[in-house]
Design a protein that fits this description.
Blueprint (H helix, E strand, L loop, with lengths): L2 H11 L23 H19 L1 E2 L2 E5 L3 E5 L3 E5 L2 H8 L8 E7 L7 E7 L14 H21 L5 E13 L4 E10 L8 E9 L4 E9 L3 H14 E3 L27 H5 L16 H4 L5 H9 L7
Antiparallel strand pairs: 1-4, 2-3, 3-11, 4-5, 5-6, 6-10, 7-8, 8-9, 9-10
Helix pairs in contact: 1-2, 2-3
Length: 310
Amino acid sequence: MSLRWLAIVLLAFLGLSQPAASQSAGSPPAAPQAATGEESREQELQTAFVEGAKAATKGKADVPLLGQASLHLPPDYMFIPQPHAARIMRALGNTASHSLVGLVFPTSGPQEWFAEIKYVEAGYVKDDEAKDWKADALLADLRAGTEEANKDRAARGFTEVEVVGWAEPPAYDAKTHRLVWAATNREKNVADSTLGVNYNTYALGREGYFTLNLLTDADKLASHKVHSATLLAALEYNKGKAYTDFDASTDHVAAYGITALVAGVAAKQLGFFALIAAFAAKGAKVLIVAGIALLAGLKRLFTGRKDPSA
């Protein structure tokens, strides 16, 4: 990904104008050239992030989530809402289901991750299955669900991905009604493919559940998964919407149990598992993408240059 592309995204976030391309005085504008498929995808990725950055909410702030909960967004994070979040996910080669709520990016520190927030209004998900989980069986179901999702990726011209194994086996806290699991992944049939990871955390509620899916490289997980814990702790259900507010006499019970939140039904039927291997788009590292929020130093870097296209 070129430095000029990064400059365009940074300037958009900072509210500055995009620098015009240089041309000889008096010369007519260059005739537009037809973009290749890869160029078109990169252009769409650029536009998606520029528009998303403009719509972002920066912490510290309270972000309402569909009348179900609030995300008490800490400093050094930013939240990109719908429909901008869906456009970014599609530009990265993933499906953007109706359950997508928004994306969270860091605005300081290592810019090597982002998190996807979804809400699934499935009803009250029973959690008694968690005590009988078998990690190997869950991994097999997860791989099967990913293969199903690959049909959509292939149809849209993106490389298929595969699940390699557990980075962190599923673990459920029955007291807080929070679930955590992580699987490593990579692009299929690609030499030297970067090993990526989806670090998934869930907050069960009375009428459904939120999921916070952190995406980063596998070798960065140990240092970045703290952000998942921070965001999960920052998500608070509204009064009457929490898991403990469930009323068996009136409330809807989900058609599946907690096992489906790891693999199986949710992955295959709800499009729940949207995998990003090496962040799908060629060269689109989160290190570059999330850099839109590094204000002072980068503003000085790009606004101080006479020739931004260098």
